[in-house]
Amino acid sequence: MNEKTKIKGQLGLYLQWPLFLGILVILTNIAVAAFSAAAGLTMSIFTLLYFVTAVFLYAYKRKKLLADLIEFSADYAWVQKRLLSDLDLPYAMVDETGRLLWMNERFAELIKEEKGGNRTLLTLFPDITKEELSGIEESVSLHTSFRESKYRMDLKPVLMDSKEQASGILETGKQKNSLVAVYLFDETEVLKYRQEIDDQKMVAGLIYLDNYDEALESVEEVRRSLLMALINRKINKYISGMTGVVKELEKDKYFFAIKQHYIPELREQRFSILEEVKAVNIGNEMSVTLSIGLGMGGETYGQNYEFARMAIDMALGRGGDQAVIKSAEKIEYFGGKSQQQEKTTRVKARVKAHALRELMESKDRLLIMGHRLSDVDSFGAAIGIYRIATALNKKAHVVINEITSSVRPVMERFLNNQDYPDDLFLNGEQAAELVDANTILVVVDVNRPSITDAPQLLQMVKTIVVLDHHRQSSEIIDNAVLSYVEPYASSACEMVAEVLQYIADGIRVKPQEADAMYAGIVIDTNNFNNQAGVRTFEAAAYLRRNGADITRVRKLFRDDMVNYKARAQAVNQAEVFEEAFAISECPADGIENPTIVAAQAANELLEIKGIKASIVMSQYNGMIYLSARSIDEVNVQVMMERLGGGGHRAVAGAQLKEMNIEEAKEKLKEVIREMMEKGEVS
Q1: Closest of 94, 92, 89 to residue 180, by C-alpha
Q2: What is the spatial distance between Cα 195 and Cα 481, in angstroms, rounded to a whole number?
């Protein structure tokens, strides 16, 4: 037997007790000899016999005793192994690489049909990685599947020693090996029943007709009832096909309820009712579009309805003609391919103007903020709000951190001008110092908090107003007291120009202010070529009457030679992807604001025949900026949203971090391919 092998624990101590008792016998012998020498001598003989017998038993019988102990240990281990082998639960031992070292009969039966001699845990369960297996320090549970069954896999690290160590009786000098015990718990039935329960849950939904009044006006009066009857029939048939119920709330609003079981089908079909309703035509010049909001995953029916209400608001805020699914975890968008129809009525603008005036009159100080890297539309809208505040005798400041090359020519007309205070323009830190309970913050040309010029102000100011023309995304300024978001508007300057006409009587806009707002409309509409409607020209006419000069505005935006050449280079190097998408890169060397030049190049690429959308990238301050433009066939906002950006249906953008231009192009192409496969490109 190995010299290092020894008896350990209580058993080893127990075998040494005869020797310890020998010491007690010696002490007793000494005590007896102290009283009688003859008695002590006699007892010494018996003491010697005791020691000889004890040493003989301990020395000569020890090997036999150890052999018996090892045999018992082996028998005990065999019983344990038999119990594990017969255990109805699949159980196995693997090393850190996933190699199967041992498995019980239930585990072997489970994988017996698997071919190949090199079966490992990683090949049997591909979703388990080697890193997960080797990094286990304590018990973990993973969910996996094998063939058609689903399992919960418990992995437990085990320190496996020699046979004697495992017995708990003997210890050796051998080095320990780290193993992993694998337990499989079949949860197929549990998950099946859980899914059935989820499928039976109620989903609340709302359907709004986007352009009810406009569509009715476009058809003969005698056919209007027929048009609505056809639409009602399609909606009722669509919901009834999913064993749901639908109830008409108003002439253009419906509530419905379906089982959650049908949500995957709706996702796959991408809400075919959107196209079916648009196909209804009995002579109406304008197709009817609708918006759908669904709420699911809430703890109560009431919470699902609130989710549905939030979803329909999101769908309408993004321009309508789309479906939005809102759950506790995420928001999903479907549709949104149609061009948003401009509403000719200004009732909403008047209502919002009066609400804004009431809020402004209740506060003493006004802060006006646009988006990061402010453009002319953002700046012009801020100047328009400043004019309103001045007319109401309120102190106002425009928050702008970085002055871009496009804004500088317009801004210079307000600097060192005796008609304007020296503190008209503040950066974010200066504005934060002025915030108090009597401060109102007006956010223009942006509704996403992360890309505002000074996001910290959104947390500091309690009264917030949002005026924007970009379609809303899942990231919104949710603490706004007043939100006026109209995706059909061409620009924020157009919206502010309308508000100016209704908020108070006799407001006189100065020529430089009118120029700034007119310039914002011109830039965002690309000289009235993009998203310009009737109200756009009416707003431009109002600004012209207040002193806006077309020639001055045109001179403000003439390019220098460096920018012109960079734009020409971006157009020259454009790649046509899938015969419809122009993708290019704008050089950044020697250009103050390459993002502006990239946007201009994207506009020019749209003039090429056959191009449905253009995307120009520029590298600036360690980030990749994407400027996307389209005319009517592609919703570039949806495209940019998938890259973490957003914007308008025809004008959008995104920012990509931690990648180069080539990686950004490849990611963009993947998004385009996905949109084409799902039919999101007309």
Answers
A1: 94
A2: 40
* Token pair for 354: 């009066």
Q: Tokens standing for 211?
A: 């352009």
Two structure tokens written together for 349: 């603008």
Tokens in use for 668?
């963009």
Residue 152 CA to its chain's centroid (Å): 27
Amino acid identity for residue 31 in this structure? A
Closest CA to 426 of 405, 384, 457: 457
Average pLDDT of the chain, as a whole number: 84
Neighbours of 173 (CB within 10 A): 9
Chain center to CA of 251:
36
Q: How many Å apart are CA 85 and CA 104, to the nearest integer?
A: 4
CA angle, corner 433, sides to 499 and 352, nearest 5?
Answer: 15
In DSSP notation, 474-533 reads S---TT-SEEEE-TTSS-HHHHHHHHHHHHSTT----HHHHHHHHHHHHHHTTTTTSS--
What is the separation of C-alpha 667 from the centre of its chain, rounded to a whole number of angstroms? 17
User: Using one digit for the tens of pLDDT, what is the confidence trace for 111-137?
Assistant: 876 665 567 888 888 888 777 777 677
Number of CB atoms found within 10 A of residue 20's CB:
9
Tokens of 314: 């999101």
The amino acid at 510:
K
Q: Over the stretch 13-63, which tens digit does the pLDDT of each residue have? A: 666 677 677 788 888 888 888 888 888 888 888 888 887 777 777 666 666
132-170 pLDDT per residue, tens: 777 677 888 888 888 888 898 888 887 655 444 444 444
In the chain, the amino acid numbered 12 is G
Structure tokens at 501: 């006409």
Q: Nearest Cα to 380, choosing from 289, 201, 515?
A: 515
**477 exposure class (CB count in 10 Å sphere: 0-12, 13-18, 19+):** buried
Q: Which residues pair with 369 in a beta bridge?
A: 399, 443
H helices present in 546-645, as ranges: 550-556, 561-572, 594-605, 636-641
Query: What's the token pair of residue 458?
Result: 């959104």
Q: Report the alpha-carbon angle 309-315-320, nearest 5.
A: 130
Token code pair at residue 539: 């707003």
